[in-house]
Amino acid sequence: MTRTDPLDVPRPHAQLHFGVFFQGVNHWTIWSAPDSGSQIDPASFRKVAQTAERGLFDAFFLGEGLRLREVDGKIHDLDVAGRPDAITQLAALAAVTRRIGLVSTSNSTFNEPADLARRLSGLDLLSEGRAGWNVVTTDNAWTGANFRRGGYLDHADRYRRAEEFLTVARALWDGWEDGAVADSAGAPAWSAPGAVHQVRHKGPQFEVDLAPTLPRSAQGHPVIFQAGDSGEGRDFAARNADVIFSAHGNDFDDALAFADDIRRRLRAVGRPDDDLRILPGTEIIIGATEEEAEEKKRWIRLQQVTPATALGIAGLLWGIDLSDRDADGPLPKEDPVVSENDGSFGARRIADPRTVVAEWRAKAEANGWSLRETVIALGPQRGHVGTPSGLADKFAHFVRHGALDGFNVTPYLIPDGLDDIVDLLVPELQERGVYRTEYSGTTLRENLGLRAPLTHRSAADRRQAG
Amino acid sequence: MSGPALHLAVEIDGDGAHPAAWRRAAHSPDQLLSPRRVARVAAVAENAGFTLITLDDGVLPPGAAPDPVGRIGAVERAAFVAASTSTVGIAPVVPVTYAEPFHVSSQLASLDHISAGRAGWVVTEEERPEAARAWGRPLVADADARARESRDGVEVVRALWDSWEDDAVIRSLATSRYLDRERLHYIDFTGDTYAVKGPAIVPRPPQGQLVVLGRPDRVPAAQLDVALVEGRDPASLTTAAAGAGAPRVFAEVEVALDTPEATAAERVADLERHAPWQDRGRLRHIGSAEQLVALLSDLSRHVDGVRLHPLVLDEDLAVLSRLVVPALSERRLVARPLPGTSLRSTLGLERPANRFAAAAPSGQEDAR
Ligand SMILES: Cc1cc2nc3c(=O)[nH]c(=O)nc-3n(C[C@H](O)[C@H](O)[C@H](O)COP(=O)(O)O)c2cc1C
């Protein structure tokens, strides 16, 4: 290991940022192992958040799904499911953490701006400037069945609504001038006259007229995250987000291509190209040796992809109910059934099942794999596997070459799945100078090294930054 | 009834019940919306031995200038406070006139998980037309329509709390199944103005159902665990309590107490120079701690609890905790909640059976 700073890289002083994604619904969180904890017990959330804070992570991150997943009209019963409302849970964590950011995934389609903006402001104030909002969009009528307005909103309209939602939210967050509230009980009024502005908005998606009820927090606004991968999603991020939660963090070339694409989109909208942090979701598997790490990975994959889960995943690909087959036997003989709508919601949809199945057959035959082994080997590849020092070298390379700014780690075990990373990997990263040794600020925005919120920048700031 | 005769709840929103209470608060106005302030008031109420704190809310500002116009959402405050307290019950006010019942149900169920079964819900209404414009929703114009939204909202929220049976998470290694889908239920609610499918995304709350508090003239008594009743004098309160029809009845009582520095009457007069203390038809006690103890002792023969609305939290809560609560506990009229006890059990309410479990007993684990 070398201590000299390699200055011949694009970003010699770049720092890696970690978030932790406490997943609520997925098969990657192992529930069957003896040390798999509860997904809903407040102690699990506290443990993960406090471990992440011990490891100087930037953010504790919660996802959201507004309807229990179904496959073929039946509630999907194989994966962890059942999770708290994100903002409510994060407000509780604000009381038992000091520095870590608290990021809520909240839907812009099935919320209203006055309500959600206020909840997020409340979280921001209770955490003294540590709130973040991962803006997600849903357009399926299936989720809409849980809401007053029912199913609605075309695919094309969801980012339009998200953008207008953000416009209203920002107006509400900027509705109070700084120092609006009196600092002495002897003041003539609780708030300075004229310091609280009525927000009136009339647009295609919303017509609202209200007096915001909260001041700005220490970080100005909640930090905006975005997690969508389409061109529209990336453009939305380039115009609005502070952080992208991407799915491009496994392979260096793929990550770099994504980051370059985002930088291009940032420049196109007149933002400096270092204005956004890119934090792909990832799993990190650590062993004392490479062999031990690989051995651990094999064990983890077998826990994650149980025979039933393997049949479920293959069933989605084939478009056939395979639940009565033998996962440890050969691949199904049938051809996949291609349909426009596979009836599965919240689960992966496969664009071209015939080609994928053909590839699976060829590889399974060549390697003598069972169906389950094939699902494990050829299903989505995720995460990084290695020794603490090997991983630290690799991550330093990624960040110094501008392929990403860090990772949003999805622990495969709750609540102890971060311990290895914090105890073994973080010190190696610190030694290489790519990871902080103390929090750089008190707010999420400061810790991520972000500029002021977009609406708070003067024209001069923008020019200078650009 | 076994146990104490009277449960004490206290409303801790803002600086107190009087709109100008901030002028007598022990902190500067810009600290009202700080986490320290939120945590401190709750800690004082918990240490004093209150059964329950409630937190007022609504989409509109809590008051008009020159008085406070700022307020953090009650659910967020409640969750924050739940993480830093251990025995006191916590009930945010959440109106369902315009809110999404699905979100409200998730938020409150989460609060119950976070507080290990200490959560309640005060159901109210967004009455003013400005609230509709703030939400960006069509106006729910009259009292009947608002009552319909409350009734449907409570129905949906409660049904969603039952939509997971208690043991829906089975973690069955034998069958690789995390959930038993037979123990999860669509609620298939269809009301006059909307429909909700379910099931919830949050597992059933620890209490099964949170303690639901509300006015019996706004929410059907059958949907309430605790009726909040009002009356300007003990006689009308007693009458209201007798007709409330809910399992428990709490009287709403506004209090201004003598402090070592000033009499209650002087304190009220001081604030009345700035703004009137609006008459909401509630019993109001302005006087000494001893008189309040006597009043509450009398009331304890007719109601299961009182919700106190202190004039100024920083002043009255101190007197309540030093003089009133101790005197009531000496008379064995009140008892502080025990650690590890749910709000329901503290109130002597049973943990309700799950409506869906009763209708459809779950099948044999190995029969499928
Ligand atoms: C890494 C990642 C995490 C996501 N997490 C959530 C989530 O927790 N809840 C949700 O509703 N959508 C989530 N999404 C979905 C996106 O918000 C978006 O709806 C989806 O990617 C489709 O948008 P697109 O067409 O722009 O890719 C996530 C997406 C990505 C890439």
Concise summary:
The complex is a heterodimer of chains A (466) and B (368). By secondary structure, chain A is of the alpha/beta class. Chain A is 36% helix and 12% strand.
Give the helices and strands, then pairings:
The complex is a heterodimer of chains A (466) and B (368).
Chain A: E1 17-22, H1 42-54, E2 59-62, E3 70-71, E4 74-75, H2 86-94, E5 101-107, H3 113-126, E6 131-136, H4 141-144, H5 158-173, E7 199-202, E8 207-210, E9 223-226, H6 231-240, E10 243-244, H7 252-268, E11 277-278, E12 281-282, E13 284-286, H8 290-304, H9 307-318, E14 344-345, H10 353-367, H11 371-378, E15 384-386, H12 388-400, E16 406-409, H13 419-431, H14 444-447, H15 459-465
Parallel strand pairs in A: 1-2, 1-16, 2-5, 5-6, 6-9, 9-10, 10-11, 12-16, 13-15
Antiparallel strand pairs in A: 3-4, 3-14, 7-8
Helix pairs in contact in A: 2-3, 3-5, 6-7, 9-11, 12-13
Chain B: E1 7-11, H1 35-48, E2 52-55, H2 74-82, E3 89-95, H3 101-114, E4 120-124, H4 129-135, H5 143-161, E5 169-172, E6 177-179, E7 189-190, E8 195-196, E9 211-214, E10 226-229, H6 234-242, E11 248-257, H7 264-272, E12 283-287, H8 289-299, E13 305-310, H9 313-330, H10 343-346, H11 355-359
Parallel strand pairs in B: 1-2, 1-13, 2-3, 3-4, 4-9, 9-10, 10-11, 11-12, 11-13
Antiparallel strand pairs in B: 5-6, 7-8
Bound molecules: flavin mononucleotide.
Flavin mononucleotide binds next to strand 5 and helix 6 of chain A.
Q: Describe the oligomeric state of these chains in a short phrase.
A: heterodimer
Large-scale geometry of chain A: globular
Terminal CA distance of chain A: 36 Å
- Structural class by secondary-structure content of chain B: alpha/beta
Instruction: Output the helix-strand order of chain B.
Output: EHEHEHEHHEEEEEEHEHEHEHHH
Q: How does the major sheet of chain A shape up?
A: 9 strands, parallel
